[in-house]
Fold BED-type domain-containing protein.
Amino acid sequence: MSEGGALEIGEDLDESTDDPVIPHNSQKKSIVHQHFTFNEESNKYICKNCKKSFKREPRSSTGNLMKHLKTKHANKLNVTNNDHLALKGPLPVAFSKTSCDKDLLRLLGEFIIMTNQPFSIVEEESFRA
């Protein structure tokens, strides 16, 4: 190893260093963990509301747990975590319907012109609400 501590080319890394092992950050960030407990013996998440269990698969995420909460316990989810799932109060002026409509029309016009589309493209079914 060189004076600065860097490895030289062809030098093996010594596995027995005294550097501390930094653990993987496994902090539970999702709000679903407030509504589920994890049973390590069975490797399953258990819903605190209805006791339904969900097997934890390797490399799985919280998507299925959130889907369960939204479909089966939406009332509890909205009450306890309303600020995470829905906007409160009226939308700010920057996102008002009038402002969005003007911006959308301008962007649509730019799209039609810059991509040489016919104006009739807006009559396609994909443009209908």
